[in-house]
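Entry 14. Structure prediction run on the chain below.
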Amino acid sequence: MRKGWTKGVAFFLVVVLTAAFGVGCGGGSEGKVTITIGEVTDLTGPAATAARWSHMTAVDIVRYWNDENLIPGVKLKLATWDERFDPSRDVPGYDWVRERGAKVIYSLVANFCESLKPFAERDKIVICASGATSPMIEPPGWVFAFSPTYAMDTKTLLQWLSENDWDYSNGVPKIGLPAWNEPIATDMDKAIKGYCQDHPGKFDYVGAFLAPVGAVMWSSQVQKVRDCDYVVLTSGVHGSFVEQFRGAGYTTKFIGPMAVAAFRGFLVDMLGWDSPLDGMITTGVHPWWGEGDSYPFIKLAEDILHRYHSASEANEIIYRGGCSYLGTGQTLWAILEVVKAAVEEVGAENFDGQAFYNAALEYKLSSPVWEGYPQWGFTQTKRYWQDDEMIYEWSAEARDLVRISDWVPLVTE
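Output returned:
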């Protein structure tokens, strides 16, 4: 396992250090107004196994928009802060990207988006969340979620499982949640409790069993959920739990959000494609690799990947990053479409957080690149972008994720 992880880190550092010289460049910058997008992510902490590939996507998307001059008169720049999955670095990171001119901040760190929400409203700086929790968007404010909340995602997955996966002639399935004690797990725990309360007889929730952030020993949690029919993962970073669960001789069906698929290479290196990965079910906030014939955005993302990386690099990014490249690409593309709409409304010189905020409320998926997607958008009272997601099954036979549903409406209540 460590050999594969070390190889991935080395590859990532080479590619990112090379790509970093091109961030914000391209298309000629003379006479252009610079608009800075702040990025708060984890490049060296416990979530970096997946988040580093997400950062690489942000670099590529910004570079592509500059190279293609997609916002005339504007040079985009990415200012990245390594939060390291450490809450003590949230406020310093916010101040750091703000000092570099960011009026819009993109982040996949849930704790950052939650804790900085009042700062964003005070300073009129929009935070765009990828991987959202309920407190980020309730009540609606200056955090815009470019994915479902983990609560919505969890309820949608539970409903789909109850209708399509579980045979109730075998009784009511038991479900458990082992995870780190952090905002994503809290949101998912509340969602499971709420769903079971609203739908009695669908699931028997044995509870959430939380460990300190960064924990890698799971003996207590393994014993708590050993008899569960479904065990929920909050992300693939908990591969050590799956390994220890299997090592103890227990079997179950693992389920979770698409965040699990961001750790595909990490999980496959650790566990192989056989049980328990084979048959695992995760949600999908976007179509998957190879679905570009039906979804132009996926084809575009694949083209951008190969434009800025060699064939061998691209294959490594797809394998190790799983959904990271597509998910961040989808989010960043939408964010930059909002930036473009705001610039067209107020002019590049007048672009600020308020202009982005106003444009975001009017934004809908209407450009040809989004063909095949539902028409998602925000409203005055709705701060989550997506209204639908897909369901994917991990397949040892295909050695990949296989889509097993069309777009499924989110369960939001």
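The two ends are 40 Å apart (CA to CA).
Filed with the rest of this week's runs.
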